Amino acid sequence: MAYATVQDVQDGMLKTMTEREREVCATLLDRAAVIIDAVALDAPEEAKKTVSCMIVERALSSGAGDIPMGATQVSRGGLGYTESWSISGGSVGQLYLSKTERKLLGLANRIDSHSPVEDIVKEATPW
What is the mean pLDDT of residues 48-57? Predict the structure, then answer.
């Protein structure tokens, strides 16, 4: 079940989607919900909606221009016909959670540990 609608995503973009883009967007929203549920099932609904829109907009915008969205470094040439990009996070068109999106879902800077010895001690103590 998607946390956002195709219209929510389109409202955040600077263009009107074609019918094919709307179909792809709906599929990506369903996939984004699976990713979010896998890492932050208890996150607030508004955060899930916002993050869904953000990651789907990024995936849909990745091929919109000559430089993909998410590129952190671009190098271009001239008559030698060279061009390269460095992408932060995932790869172009891939659904992934950025640091900001993880913070929105309440996943930032969590440190945790677990020792199996604690479970054994709990089982062995009668009180």
Answer: 94
